[in-house]
Specification:
Number of domains: 1
Shape: globular
Number of helices: 14
CATH topology: TIM Barrel
Number of strands: 10
Structural class: alpha/beta
Largest sheet: 8 strands, parallel
Radius of gyration: 19 Å
Distance between the termini: 11 Å
CATH class: Alpha Beta
Bound molecules: zinc ion
Amino acid sequence: MTQIASLPKVVLHDHLDGGLRPSTVLALADETGYLGLPRHDERTLAEWFDQSHSASLVGYLAAFDQTVAVMQTPAALQRVARETVEDHAADGVVYAEIRFAPSLHLRQGMTRSEVIGSVLRGLAEGEEATGVVARVIIDAMRHEQDAVEVAAAAVEFAGRGVVGFDLAGPEVGFPASAHRRALAVARNGGLRLTIHAGEADGPAGIADALDSGAERLGHGVRIVEDAVVREGQIVDLGPIARRVHRDAIPLEICLSSNIHTGAVPAGTRHPAGMLLRAGFNVTLNTDNRLMSRTSMSREFAFARSDLGFSDDDLRTVTDHAVLAAFCDEPSRRSVVAAVAARYESI
Ligand SMILES: [Zn+2]
């Protein structure tokens, strides 16, 4: 068996505000005069952020309140972005799409464009230092009213590091289709679309996201509810699952996160392996490295130890991710070459 650390990895679903180093949260709180942290040393703060036992979105969201609170200046955003690339590089990642919601970072007077520009500077520094290709997906929050403004700000940076647009936040009661105008602004401005769906809501939310133009699904894991499963195998597909399968819609699966938030019910085996074997376009991702205490290596290790992924399966999900990446074709070719070179050196 190949050492997971040495495998090349591609991550398409990783939240900037879900991946800070605990030491950086402490340092930024200090620098920016933020007094609201619940713990004041690295070890206990890391434990506080660890939501791996919460099995609810509520605990997860309280943790984001804290990271977002220290990400309110250009310097803080730049640092967090640079460190994100450094941490992925150290984990064997060769390509990363990092996402965040600019509207969460306006409390101290930055504009959305300044927020995006600061993150792009940090990612470029990280890219320069490590060789990891890093691109941005901009999130609008589905329960807010500013998605059109967010999309307009994102489009300013199309072709300059921002490659995609996403809807994040609560799914139930806030359908993707309510944001069609914002999605059109993003698409017409040259951005690709991925939408969180099939995490908190079921197949109907997935259908709504696809009808709204989603080219990839953030999670999408609950598509399995539209399939007939017998003895751990998918034996038939309902209409929505059939569509996702037929159109090879990439599923941005995040194993640890899905278990921690309850998207996959406690005590059930994560269906990623079953979906992969049934021919779905499965990719593996981190979602929130801080809150789920994870990394791409840990996700790969979990897939192998608990879900029966072989080395070939891990290569397959990486190849899926390279093909599903929203970067331009020259960048994709360089990622293909980087993945091949790493495999040859194993
Ligand atoms: Zn997510």
